[in-house]
Amino acid sequence: DSGVTQTPKHLITATGQRVTLRCSPRSGDLSVYWYQQSLDQGLQFLIQYYNGEERAKGNILERFSAQQFPDLHSELNLSSLELGDSALYFCASSPAGGPNEKLFFGSGTQLSVL
Amino acid sequence: GQSLEQPSEVTAVEGAIVQINCTYQTSGFYGLSWYQQHDGGAPTFLSYNALDGLEETGRFSSFLSRSDSYGYLLLQELQMKDSASYFCAVLNTGFQKLVFGTGTRLLVSP
Asked: Is A51 an 8 Å CB contact of chain B?
């Protein structure tokens, strides 16, 4: 158990809908990262937050947004969902603001868009 | 931009030694990390190299050559439980993020 909690574990929704994925980092960690992993693909970096502020941005679509709250938990919002958004979404945390070579990953949210 | 190349799949038998290579292209290189991911599981950190040379952690070792933009993960005394995907990841100070390769699927057979 990495100490990073992600909910829900599975999410099934329809195209055009909006969903919210939630992540609670390890106790004491200030940084939260979001990654997307599609079938047979590597981990694509989406965005990083550090202590409530956006720190780095990757290939995150405009339909996607995220935030980190004062209690350090983070939410990833995906809107106007398309079939291609179906993927495993991982949250990871680290104590540092970045860069950090050792990330602790949650168990992921499997999103299926039908 | 940044790119990492790894073999897509490697097969080996129990007790053997296997090497998973990773070549990368990036600017502002800081270090190379390795992660393991079992099917349906989360990636877990294995090792990190910032300097040239070999880092050993039990049955696993990782090597880095900064001049060659190359690294590898060496797994010894393979066990069935080592069957998983292995990702190299570049730590880049300029972009403040860890960029992952597409992963190498290791299949260990009896």
From this structure: no
